[in-house]
Protein: Putative nucleotidyltransferase
Organism: Sulfurospirillum halorespirans DSM 13726
Amino acid sequence: MNRIIYLISKHIDIFELFTEVYIFGSVVKNNKFPNDIDLLLVYRIYSEEIEGKKNMIEQFLKNLFELEIDITILSEKELEQTKFLEKLDSVYERIK
């Protein structure tokens, strides 16, 4: 497991509002010098807390890694309908 995925996994509690969390892109491709960190956060039921939590996660990870953080948020239904994970061609890792 690479360092970034390991450290995010150590802070898994920041994703408490989300049922699933995936990391994808250059971090998963074992790029030693990724440009950014791409995350997919999946929720079951929308609440106003989700947007605030997204901003908190983004700032926390930006401070931790000094990289840009790109976060996509989808409902469980949207994840299924858009086939988001299939479009990543298996270049992702589920961390929650």
